[in-house]
Amino acid sequence: MAVYQNPVIKGYNPDPSICRVGKDYYLVTSTFEFFPGVPVYHSRNLTDWKMIGYCLTRDSQLPLERCRCSGGIYAPTIRYHDGTFYMITTNVSHGGNFIVYAENPTGPWSEPQWVDQAGIDPSLLFDEDGKVYFCGTHNDNGRSSIVLFQVNPKTGERLSEKTVITHGTGEKCPEAPHLYKINGWYYLMIAEGGTEYGHMETIFRSRNVEGPYESCPHNPLICHRQADTSPIQATGHGDLLEDENGNWWMVHLGIRPLGHVMLHNLGRETFLTPVRWEDGWPVVGEERHTAMEMTAILPGDGTAIIPTVDFEDDFTNSSWKLDWNFVRNPHRERYTCENRELCLRGGEETLSDFVPTFMGVRQKEFEMAAETCLTAVLQDGGRAGLTAFYNMEYHYDIYTKRIGDCQKVGISWTVHGLTGGFESDTVESTQPVMFRVETGREKYEFYYRTGKMDWKLLGTCATAGLCTEGTRMMTFTGTYLGVFAEKGEARFQYFSAKEI
Q1: How many alpha carbons lie under 13 Å from residue 14 in its C-beta half-sphere?
Q2: Contact 73, 87 (CB under 8 A)
Q3: Is there a cis peptide before residue 432, judged by omega within 30 degrees of 0?
Q4: Most CB atoms within 10 A, among 127, 140, 318, 372?
Q5: Is 310 among the residues known to form the active site?
Q6: Which of 15, 269, 313, 341 is catalytic?
Q7: Choosing from 33, 121, 175, 397, which is the catalytic residue?
Q8: Active site residue 175
Q9: Burial code of 95-115, b = ≥16 C-beta within 10 A, e = fewer?
Q10: Tens-place pLDDT, residues 395-426
Q11: Which pLDDT tens digit goes with each residue over 327-342?
Q12: What's the pTM?
């Protein structure tokens, strides 16, 4: 037995799906408007996950032009069959449901194979008789449901008529279906209750893939809506897995609220919960709950590793570290590594526009410190610096700004798309400036320094302004820490984001 810590993948990593190939485990999560799309993680013990690539790395695979905030890529499913990995997902902004496939999970992955079916959260089942089934959400004459049909996974072609197989247990938003064949039964697991604080996971079974499906007598399998004191909330959208030792698990999303207030800024994260079987039904966790610390028999060498959340880059490599993300399809010519520096060539777009010149990594813990050092050759009015970025309508920035022959240090805050801020201190235009942001459960603190001076606190912003619950539209992402440039060239000597 080993003790492991949740979440197993920290920071914005929602809608996990998992598959096993021998003793290797592969997991994917949603990415919405961020690029590249659908990270692929690998593990041997289910607790120590390393990002090894992305499914969607080309604009042709992932068109995100003018994608709304929290549009783009929803809820991927990964499966392995007969030497090939398949990932199916939905681009809700451009094209709908599609499949990509690859022989190696690190890629390259194929071009999208589009499926002529509306809805979201598609999944695949490779049945024992060679048939492949698609299941996803469906509008059944105004009623939310789950639909099933046969599909060719290499072309996306539908091969049978559509069959509605469940409307759920009666909770709102039946979605996120996964279909499994286990001991002669077809098990259909779905999420219900909406992906907020009423979230839950339910399961059904049938001897026939098209149903009828009976509901598990102890549904929901997992739900934290009554667990008011738990540091984990909104559990659901799971995927089941049997490890190489015959033990069962569920990976699922959850959130970590800031504390006594039901607000979260890290995004929906990936959790791991043990599963046992009783009377032909899965039983998840303890009394349908998961916990921050759990004890179980892990695969691999049986030990649990707590991976670091720290990240740093000194830009000595010509290729980007996998942790870096962009917003929508980036203008690649604006990003280069030159002479051990990151060079960003900012255009007219700001962080509040659709395609800013921005690179960021996920904020993975409540208390972190991000730092960078930059020099800038900006146009009059140009800015460059460090940002805590939720989306184009919610971000906090500390920066240098070119005003005539002067370089001002300033701070700005954008909430509900409205921006305020100030420029206060003047520094030499040729002098490098170091920036630091310290994150916390109540506030973000923004510091700068030049030369040998001590860190100077320039201002603070409330953490609540970067929380999902406070956004004016339905959002599903989390906070990034990163660098940006607007109207001119900025060079960054390093970037780090570390837990404090």
Answers
A1: 28
A2: no
A3: no
A4: 372
A5: no
A6: 15
A7: 175
A8: yes
A9: ebbbbbbbeebebebbebbeb
A10: 999 999 998 888 899 999 999 999 999 988 88
A11: 999 999 999 998 899 9
A12: 0.97
